[in-house]
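In the design runs reported in the main text, the only information available to the sequence generator was the tokenized backbone. The following block is the verbatim input for one such run; it is reproduced so that readers can re-run the procedure and compare outputs position by position.
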């Protein structure tokens, strides 16, 4: 068992991700503001792009976790529930409604 309330790896969903990020960084992120969070997210996307291009699998995984954490933080700050947001992909392509996409 990890610390109480800690997200266990292999057991995380988007609700839990947003919750743990809010509890871990919520106050600081709120003080920093949305514009700064967007800037950090953009920087992390850059690091992910670089890792995918020339990093190890561990480095790529690390950068994915940073990007997901910043996405969760931004969603928290602007009041978006990522689980609801991703619902539009639940039945396949939101445009053509096919799975796989036939657009
Ligand atoms: Zn489609």
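Verbatim output:
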């Amino acid at each position: 068992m990890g610390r109480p309330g800690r997200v266990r790896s292999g057991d995380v969903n988007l609700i839990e991700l947003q919750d743990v990020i809010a509890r871990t960084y919520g106050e600081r992120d709120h003080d920093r503001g949305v514009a700064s969070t967007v800037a950090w997210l953009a920087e992390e996307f850059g690091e992910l792009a670089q890792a995918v291009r020339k990093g190890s699998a561990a480095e790529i995984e690390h950068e994915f976790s940073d990007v997901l954490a910043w996405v969760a933080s931004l969603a928290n700050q602007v009041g978006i529930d990522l689980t609801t947001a991703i619902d539009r992909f639940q039945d396949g392509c939101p445009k053509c409604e096919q799975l796989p996409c036939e657009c």
